[in-house]
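Folded chain entry —
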Amino acid sequence: MNQEERLISILNYLELHKTINIKQICEKFNVSRDTARRDIVNLTNQNLVTRTYGGIAIPSFHKQIEDYQERLQIEPFSKNLLGKAAANMINDSDLVYLDISTMVNFIPQYLESKEVTVVTNSIDCVYELVQSDKATIHILGGIVNKSSRHVSGYSAIEKLSDFNFNKVFIGTAGITEDGIYYGFEEDIYFKRELIKNANHVILLADYTKFNKHHKYKGLPYSSIHTIITDKTLPDNLNKVISKNGIEIKVVNKE
């Protein structure tokens, strides 16, 4: 089956099932993940489908997806690059935590060849990780937040004390000279407890978060070891971050 025939078949499948992910394309059409991704890009560029986390959907169905899923489409190219760079920091046998950040949720697709143990409260992270035969997955318990697709509550925070993470990957709603900001009060308490159990804390933040305040100041720079971003930091942020000895990784888009 050539690509044109395969694309037609994918569209026919979507008419019946509304969505399809990369793993399903690989299995249904006996192609590699790289080929499946090229098919997705081809259909997306023709405006025949809309990207979702881990796959594609027909446009009419995608309109029903919650705000969190829509945020995955903001700067998707940069988020994908940052996710790949973050995944490259993860080694076999690592115990890692993956945050509910839309940016962090691009990491799991690059972990399929690594024998890692992942703890998360993100439903989308779990969805992507179950497609890997090598990853061991722990999902924190609690109440399901349908709009942001994660599990929250006291039991989720309490369970964090059971782990000693090699690496923790978190996102942010904003970065200023004062520190790291979040949009919800619950986030700051969860993050503060999380970093107590981490050997290395990695913050993923694209340029849209630079010098952006939000409702709650969650973490000081002393909590962060590495920042992965897609553009050179503004001078004011670079100065304070360098002063705190934080490693800065700027992902090359070329």
About this structure: The chain has two domains: 3-65, 76-250. Residues 76-250 form a domain with the Rossmann fold fold (CATH 3.40.50.1360).
